Amino acid sequence: MTNFTLHDKESAPQESHALLENSQKAFGMIPGLHAVMAEAPGLLDGYQRLHQLFLDSSFDDEETTVVWQTINVEHACHYCVPAHTGIAKSMKVDDAITDALRNETALPTDRLEVLRDFTLAIVRGRGNVDDSAVETFLNAGFTKRQVLEVVLGTAQKVMSNYTNHLANTPVDKPFQKFEWHKAD
Question: Could you tell me the residue range of the domain that residue 94 belongs to?
Answer without folding.
Answer: 59-178
